[in-house]
Amino acid sequence: MKLIIIEGTDNVGKDTLISRIMENYDVMTLIHCGKPKSKDHPNESQDSLFNFYIKSIINKKYNNSDVIIMNRSHIGEAVYGVLYRNRDINEVLKKIHDWNVELMKCPDLEVKYIQLLSTSERLLKNNEDGQSLSKGNSSNIIKETALFTEAYVKSFLDKKLIYVDDNGEFRTKEDIFDEAWDFINK
């Protein structure tokens, strides 16, 4: 079984990439592990959600699927928990590490972590859909990008960092998909 984790800041193209990946599998499960809708969301319930999904994967709840795709995951807590719910980065990174260790203990589970990243604050602001916690705030967009980069660097999962822009413009959806697909199938 393959677990594909797609992470990144809001408005970077996660849903678009996931839709393209889903077109290529007959049997798959999609888990949308979204961030809390408010800053007041208790950390414990967010961690409980991650525990539930990780244990469900480990206990083969999704065994009828060849592929599980996580739209967002426990890794994003290093960004949203830290910036918007005042969590300690080291505590969150320790939890993420522990969850990753649990996933890696599954001998028949291949984990692929894709981090989408934009180097253009302008593109992310222009793509704002009104649903992100940053609300298009430049300072928060920059902080989110930096924290996602830190979480990516510290992860020991089989991972791929994909930049969704080039020279100040978004790359094509096909180009981003091709890069992700090559990684997923290597």
Keywords summarizing the entry:
single chain, 186 residues, alpha/beta, 5-stranded parallel sheet, two-stranded antiparallel ribbon, 7 strands, 45% helix, 18% strand, globular
Q: How big is the Rg?
A: 16 Å
Tertiary shape: globular
Specify the helix fraction band.
Answer: 40-55%
Given as residue ranges, the uncertain stretches (5+ residues, pLDDT < 50) are none
Strand arrangement across the biggest beta sheet: 2-3-1-4-5
Mean pLDDT over the full residue set: 87
Biggest sheet features: 5 strands, parallel
Strand content: 15-25%
Strands, total number: 7
N/C terminus separation: 15 Å
What does this protein look like?
The chain is α/β, with parallel strands linked by helices. Helices cover 45% and strands 18% of the residues. The chain is built from seven helices and seven strands. It has helices spanning 14-22, 43-58, 77-84, 89-104, 121-126, 138-154, 173-184; strands at 2-8, 28-32, 67-71, 110-117, 159-163, 165-166, 169-170. The strands form two sheets. A five-stranded parallel sheet has the order 2-3-1-4-5. A two-stranded antiparallel sheet has the order 6-7. Helix 2 links the parallel strand 2 and strand 3 (67-71). The longest helix is centred in the last third of the chain and has 17 residues, at 138-154. It starts with a strand and ends with a helix.
